[in-house]
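Support request, please re-run this one:
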Amino acid sequence: MAEIGTIGRAPSGGFGRTNGANVVNVISVRDLEVGYHDTPVLKGLNLDVRRGEVLGFVGGSGMGKSVLTRTIIGLLPKWKGTIEVFGRDLDAIEEEEREEIERRWGVMFQGGALFSSLTVRQNVQFPMRENLDLSKRLMEEISLAKLEMVGLHRDVLNKMPSELSGGMIKRVALARALALDPEILFLDEPTSGLDPISAGEFDTLIRALQQTLGLTVFMVTHDLDSLYSVCDRIAALADGKVIAEGPIETMLQSQHPWLKSYFHGERARARRPATGTQATQSR
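Re-run finished. Output below.
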């Protein structure tokens, strides 16, 4: 049997842009403008995502957090700007190379976005069927391995999405996002709709997978607990641009009105550790 850890991995080459001190940016966005009809949403946005980090992308409702993810992965057209992934300008490469790059990322959409007419097995295997030429037996082995990786068992394989709890749907969606052994994982509001215990367990799972698999994680979230417990850095969006980026301490020290409200409001004080430092320091 082929090694599961290498299935779907694109050929080596093109790892990203170096940014000093051995920091490699696997995603670089410059002067990005995106909007709907005549209404701009992102207005000259700049952002780097470093290899091997968990970057939390935070902003108010309707500010365009998910718009950035969808633009990077090609679901929304941009008006202006450049997007580089693994050091390659996505507008300047041939379709074949673009497809190779796309196989090196996985996406978990908000709410899971499972295909309602497909079983769990079929949902997890969908990226394999679309991108790889694998035997049925190998796809069975990989799909089971991915489900076990996210804390699910083989007894869910034949269930339909309608038979799953909200937390299970998210785990299946995460297994599907991992199907091709991606190097970059995009997560859109992964803990939304979960109770605090389930959300905490999902945060722990994300961090464990990131460390075990060496993933770079771009996580759109509004969950303060996730920002403290999982993220190495945070980028904050307001007025169509990134207004601050850095560790949690940078967010806490910012004087921007929206950030002050977000990180020092009543809910933030209730959630923030008493020391005011990042909970992940003890990891």
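The longest strand covers residues 24-36. The chain is about 35% helix and 25% strand.
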